[in-house]
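ugh ok fine here u go
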Amino acid sequence: MIRPARNADAVRLAEIHVAAWRRGCRDIFPEEVLLGVTVERRTKDWTHWLGLPGTWTLVAELEGRVVGFATIGSLRANGRPVRSTVEMRRLYVDPAHWRGGIGRALHEQALDEARARGFTQLVLWVFSQNQRARAFYAALGFEPDRSRSVTIGGHSVNETRYTLAVPSA
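structure:
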């Protein structure tokens, strides 16, 4: 079942976020960077993020427990929303449930949400070294169109932007 996230989901979203971050990025970032992101810190982040206007977070439940989430939000350029484009800001699944179709289901629901809100393009950024994530997004039809360098925890890493046209109904 996929549903909108609620404030009461913040701790579980943080647990999934940290577990997936640490597992998925263990070959990208040094251990001190991975361990620097804690459930406590992410719970505070999620409490804030769930209240942001212009963003929508969906959660996937399996047997009554949240096992994944996707957040989309209005893309901003020069401080203003880009009317036609929405950004997939986060898509994470509990590592115990990877390769079970949950990420794909969340993606499909996020596309439906984007379509319903009038967006025609979905973009996202992924660490260029994250081959598993890049293969996942490519299988969904995303195409890379640019890259950039970012610094996280003092560690420089490249990101690749992917785009996907939001199909009409």
